[in-house]
Amino acid sequence: MLRLPWFEYRSPRSVAEAVKILAGEGPQAMLVAGGTDLLPNMKRRHQSPKVLVSLRAVDELRKLNGSYGAGLTLAEVVAHPGTPGALRHAAAQVATAQIRNMGTLGGNLCLDTRCTYYNQTEEWRKAIDYCLKKDGSVCWVATASKRCVAVSSTDTAPALIALDAKVTLVGPGGEREIPVESLYNNDGIDYLSRKPDEVLSAIVIPSSWKSVYWKLRRRGSFDFPLLGVAAALKMDGDVVADARIALGAVASRPFRIEKAGEFLKGKRLTDEVIAEAATLVANRAKPMDNTDMDLYWRKEVADDFAGYALKELRGDDMGAIRLRTARYLPG
Amino acid sequence: MNETKKRLDVIGKPRRRVDGRAKVTGQLRFADDLALPRMLHAKLLRSPHPHAIVESVDAEKARRHPGVKLVLTGQDFPVPFGIMPVSVDEYPLARERVRYVGDPVAAVIASDEQSAVEALALIEVRYKALRPVCGPQDGLEHPEPRIHDYGEQGNIHRNQAYEFGDVDEALRNADFVAEDLFFYEGNTHLPMEQQASLAFLDQDGKLQISSSTQNPHYLHRQLSRVLQVPESRIRVVATPNGGGFGGKCDPGGHEFVVSKAALVLGRPVKIGLTREEVFYVHRGRHPVLMKMKTGVTKEGKLTGMHLQTLLDGGGYGSHGPASTFYTGVLTPVTYHYPRFKFEACRVFTNKPACGPKRGHGTPQPRFGQEVQLDKIAERLGMDPLELRLKNLTKAGDLTASWLRVGSTGLEDCLRKVAEISDWKGKRGKLPQGRGVGLACSTYMSGAGVAIYWNKMPHSGVQVLLDRSGTVVVYCGATEIGQGSDDVLAAIVAETLGVDTGSVRVVTGDTGITPVDLGSYSSRVTIMAGNAAVQAAERLRASLAAAVCETLGTLPDRVVFSQGKVFAADNTGAGMSFVEAVTMAEAQLGTLSAVGSYSPPKPPGRYKGAGVGPSPAYSFSACVVEAEVDERTGWIHVPKIWMAHDIGRALNPVLARGQVIGGVYMGLSEALMEEQSFRRLPEKLSGALVHRAPSMLDYKSLTALDMPEVEVALIEDPDPNCPYGAKEVGQGPLLPVMPALANAIFDAVGVRIDEIPITPDKVLRALEAKAEGKAPRVGPDSYPSVPYPEPTFVLPPWEGGDGNESRKGGEKRAAAAVV
Amino acid sequence: MAAIPERVHLTMQVNGEAAPVSFAPYKTLLEVLREDLGLTGTKHGCELGECGACTVLVDGQPVLSCLALALECGGRAIETIEGVQRGPELHPLQAAFADCGGSQCGYCTPGVIMTAKALLARNPAPTRDEIREATAGNLCRCTGYQQITEAIESAATLLRAERT
Ligand SMILES: Cc1cc2nc3c(=O)[nH]c(=O)nc-3n(C[C@H](O)[C@H](O)[C@H](O)COP(=O)(O)OP(=O)(O)OC[C@H]3O[C@@H](n4cnc5c(N)ncnc54)[C@H](O)[C@@H]3O)c2cc1C
Ligand code: FES
Ligand code: FES
């Protein structure tokens, strides 16, 4: 049986109290929400916080009025009738039903980056003499790289970026609100711009977008994204008034493709326009060979997935393709 | 079988399996569910090097760690083990050499698992790294350093060649010769239950181990050997296995470790492997590269086949010698090949050892054979169904290699599967991007010879009756989920005319059950089943003799049915089964009978003829429908049809479940399962590691990925089998992979000559097709393998007698059967 | 490590009864159920959230006991396979799994039954697709899932009949 290492457990009742503990304990303390990312990581000794600061008893993080509390479970986010398309599709396709009952939206946004050389047990990593991300000096994905290229694998982040959402971070010095995209650095190790003593408390999503999220994964459940395409549109009749497209799982951070958004503005979603926008999106997908499935293939199908997303926004019935690929049908 | 009883009461009726209740209530105790007072916990330290000399192990600090009771190293285990007598090459803990990342080196036994884990980190091992052998070709090119100091030569473990009739001539005389290369990647069993074992000294001071093993008998023998304790002082209890599939056939290092620790400490010691360790214990499907040449006439008759295989064996022998044979021997059982030659070579590599997985060695050549037939049919412009029907072996046939095909329902399977899948309406007629594929297979109902040479029965059963009317069946067979307890209960219940509710089955315990060789090669139904029939019939005869006078009839006119015993010609009068037992017990004393089973002698007499024969072969035919997205290569399988010749379904619910489960595992292998390895850049690292030793990264189908399966059971009772029942556990897996490959060809016209078949490969083949290149992805060269001069045997129809002879000439001295 | 207690004590509601228990604080709910409460019906296949074998119900929701800190289960309602049976009788789900081939080796069975129980509580008449979706977080290596789906369907029918 794989077990957790020893740790000290703290259970604050409020965000302020949590922040105070974090500030007091320094980097040896870590927040735990649903635990579905952190606990496997601790069992494999990726992260060994001396102090676990649990957010479970912090009721204010579970609010859902205007903004989404970071402590809402993914299942709750999916079930909420007001949740916009892209976020609902993304949250509904995370892992498995059991994990969605446990994992939170905040935890999903702060999910550790992933890599096939990193998400392994301590013994396995010892056999490759560790890697740049943890305890080693070489990035085995790109041995010449000075930077860790572990992949951002959160499904909800690209969705929230496309939706132009903002997150609230609460630290000892008070609150700040930043666009979701700026929560991330393109660095597999230092992947968040969140400070170690900040708590992500809420997510604010403007409601005016029509949006979808498409996920590429091997199987109908369990699997992390190999590619996530989120697209959000504002329409003026059948003309695109505004467009935001974001990609996940192809870099150390999720990011927006401004060019594709700009290109779509003022256009009708004809097959040609969709194909060209999809190419613009796909050009920015530069996956590394550190996830499941063949690297070149993942790159090759990026435009297809971008196309699926735009066609679905145009109103095409994409149910059959959704069922055949990710085996998910938005309800 | 009793003439007076034609109707079956139990057999063939859908019924709750006898162990069903325990499984759904959580009461069934798997090995890791066991706990004893004062129990200690063991953990293993494993090698981080793929190939190295162990220079020293310093465990002083670990011994002083709080909670630690004992540290064991290779020095504590001077005697090696190995499931086959010809490859006894493993130590419970490595002594001088480690041969794969994960090879166990030392063990800590502590008061709790956490302390044991902490102590492992304190053990200092000095290694001297050696060049790792990364694959079979690498092993052929680098005979040094040798991984083992035994084997054929260099790093070749086994190398063998057989020729049945002059195959070159057969190919020369064909109208054309199809020549293909195929590759089948290795994969593993992935049982849901991770192996666990609990060892302790019983009240008499004897060693007892409860373990998730498929083969308690073989483990018993190996424990005695390694621990140097007489077999009579060891008791092995096979706990119900949470899935086996062949992965719990070999004894594992951990089983010796906890046993030794219990002997040393006198306290119960438990170990539970982690999922990663289960990947290292492995013994799964060998990666096999194949070259296949088949001669065909214009009319579509096969003239002969020359098959070459190259196996990546991993670091130890395991079942490898048998696996090597199995990449050849069963190939000619489904279709008639007038001549057949196969050459097979297993190379040691620095990876976890491969061994038996569901279908043991045969899915790989079956894949090549069935895809090649599809290509041949295409070339001939013939329906692949017709081509197959034209070449089927017939009941009672001998193959060129002297295997006896007993009953066969393959033709019925083919016709049935074609009918239920609407093969004629679909093949070549579905819209572009959709297609159907067909394939067949066969599997043994138990192997003809035991793993170690002996003349004793393969299975023994004892049945005990007492005046309460309870029937107790004792048998060494092991319940691994396949339903062996249910098979025994059903057979005994049917024979004695009671329901399975009055039968208690006690299995897999070397302390109290008669020897059965184990749950492997689909042998339990036929072997333990036949032994059970014999024991139960003997008891029934005793009962009949005791009651016939009272019933006013002759002993062979006494009928046992539905808990009643009566005269065949006077069904009204009679007595209850309990009354009959009471009467018999009063007359004859305590009632018990034993039965045993040994398979018939195989017809082949050349050295090596012992691998492949079986008392009965099951047959299957499968149609897979596939949809392929031509832009992405994405593969979707909406439905699979499977017809399986089972002889008779003892319990149709279980039989159907075995078929669907086999289809599932076949499809999962066909689409995604891969036990593959990563060699880090040689200049920077010597690492050779398993790519994905976790349930998340080793992909297997989920409920959402599994298509509907339509099952047709073809029932034509086989006279060699208990109530006619043949195997069903392994056969239905085998045709799924080639049927998928063939369906993809029908859908989009590309050939994937490699397993698994993934979207990227399909897309690459589609791109090649678009560029006017060969629309195929698969291996494109076969290395030069130094196969030996073949053992030459004349086929039965060329005047052979089953012995080795000289090619084109007189016989060689008759060689013994292995 | 001075600040870390060797053991913690708390009381969970397990299968409808108060279960006071003392355990090492690093333990997950899975470990406490199996090792400290002796409820070995809950299985484990990975301990990393990757198989579903350890599924139990916490406050009625299927969750993975291998990823739940036992420390956080004080006062919560935990339901395991041991609590499903109705006195001496099998729950219709259990009966259906035993009768329809939903359980072969039985190792994944407790987890699947718990998942299915929550599904039927929320959706008494699920379609086959809904059943597959709900159970897609429980790997099974034996059955190919089809007889699991059939068993759940048949139990749903039985349970609906009971209700009317
Ligand atoms: C088998 C498996 C499959 C998975 N598949 C997917 C998938 O397909 N897609 C996907 O996106 N994820 C997947 N996950 C990962 C994970 O389950 C989800 O991302 C989940 O949403 C994480 O949320 P949590 O609350 O459990 O996070 P936790 O594990 O509690 O925390 C994750 C990280 O976030 C930090 N954190 C948590 N809350 C806050 C907060 N409020 N403020 C600041 N920091 C915080 C923690 O310190 C930790 O570093 C999978 C996990 C498993 C085990
Ligand atoms: S044990 Fe595998 S998910 Fe919990
Ligand atoms: S029944 Fe064996 S794993 Fe599901």
Any chance you could write out the topology, listing elements then pairs?
The complex is a heterotrimer of chains A (331), B (818) and C (164).
Chain A: E1 8-10, H1 15-25, E2 29-32, H2 38-43, E3 51-54, E4 64-65, E5 67-69, H3 74-79, H4 85-92, H5 97-102, H6 105-109, H7 122-127, H8 156-162, E6 166-171, E7 174-179, E8 199-204, E9 210-216, E10 227-236, E11 239-248, E12 255-256, H9 258-264, H10 271-283, H11 295-300, H12 302-314, H13 319-324
Parallel strand pairs in A: 1-3, 2-3
Antiparallel strand pairs in A: 4-5, 5-8, 6-7, 6-8, 9-10, 10-11, 11-12
Helix pairs in contact in A: 4-8, 9-10, 10-12
Chain B: H1 20-25, E1 40-46, E2 52-58, H2 60-64, E3 68-73, E4 97-98, E5 104-110, H3 113-120, E6 124-129, H4 136-141, E7 156-164, H5 167-172, E8 176-184, E9 196-201, E10 207-211, H6 216-227, E11 234-238, H7 253-265, E12 269-272, H8 275-281, E13 288-296, E14 302-314, H9 320-326, E15 340-348, H10 363-380, H11 384-391, H12 410-421, H13 423-426, E16 434-444, E17 459-465, E18 471-475, H14 484-496, E19 503-507, H15 524-551, E20 558-561, E21 564-567, E22 570-576, H16 577-588, E23 591-597, E24 617-628, E25 635-645, H17 652-671, E26 677-679, E27 688-690, E28 708-714, H18 736-748, E29 751-752, E30 754-755, H19 759-770, E31 776-777, E32 791-793
Parallel strand pairs in B: 1-12, 7-32, 8-30, 10-11, 14-15, 18-19, 25-28, 29-31
Antiparallel strand pairs in B: 1-5, 2-4, 2-6, 3-5, 7-15, 8-13, 9-10, 9-12, 13-14, 16-24, 17-18, 17-23, 20-21, 21-22, 24-25, 26-27
Helix pairs in contact in B: 10-18, 14-15, 15-16, 17-18
Chain C: E1 8-14, E2 17-23, H1 29-36, E3 55-58, E4 61-64, E5 77-79, H2 92-100, H3 109-122, H4 128-135, H5 146-163
Parallel strand pairs in C: 1-5
Antiparallel strand pairs in C: 1-2, 3-4, 3-5
The structure holds flavin-adenine dinucleotide (FAD) and FE2/S2 (inorganic) cluster (2 copies).
One FE2/S2 (inorganic) cluster sits between chains C (103-109, 140-143) and B (192, 243, 481).
Structural summary, described in words:
- The complex is a heterotrimer of chains A (331), B (818) and C (164).
- Chain A has 331 residues and is of the alpha+beta class.
- Chain A has two domains: 197 residues, 2-Layer Sandwich (Uridine Diphospho-n-acetylenolpyruvylglucosamine Reductase, domain 3), CATH 3.30.465.10; 116 residues, Enolase-like, domain 1 (2-Layer Sandwich).
- Chain A is built from 13 helices and twelve strands.
- In chain A, the strands form three sheets. Chain A has a five-stranded antiparallel beta sheet. Chain A has a four-stranded antiparallel beta sheet with strand order 9-10-11-12. A three-stranded parallel beta sheet of chain A has the order 1-3-2, with helices on one face.
- In chain A, strand 10 and strand 11 form a beta hairpin.
- The longest helix of chain A is centred in the last third of the chain and has 13 residues.
- The two termini of chain A are 38 Å apart.
- The mean pLDDT of chain A is 97.
- Chain B is of the alpha/beta class and 818 residues long.
- Chain B folds into three domains: 168 residues, Aldehyde Oxidoreductase, domain 4, CATH 3.30.365; 183 residues, Aldehyde Oxidoreductase, domain 3 (Alpha-Beta Complex), CATH 3.90.1170.50; 258 residues, 2-Layer Sandwich (Aldehyde Oxidoreductase, domain 4), CATH 3.30.365.10.
- In chain B, helix 10 runs parallel beside helix 18.
- The C terminus of chain B is likely disordered.
- Chain C is an alpha+beta fold.
- Chain C has two domains: 76 residues, Ubiquitin-like (UB roll), CATH 3.10.20; 72 residues, Orthogonal Bundle (DNA polymerase, domain 1).
- Helices cover 35% and strands 15% of the residues of chain C.
- Chain C has five helices and five strands; from the N terminus they run E-E-H-E-E-E-H-H-H-H.
- Chain C starts with 7 loop residues before the first strand and ends with a helix.
- In chain C, 63% of the residues are buried.
- The chains are: A alpha+beta (331), B alpha/beta (818), C alpha+beta (164).
- At the A-C interface, helix 2 and helix 5 of A face strand 4 of C.
- Bound molecules: flavin-adenine dinucleotide and FE2/S2 (inorganic) cluster (2 copies).
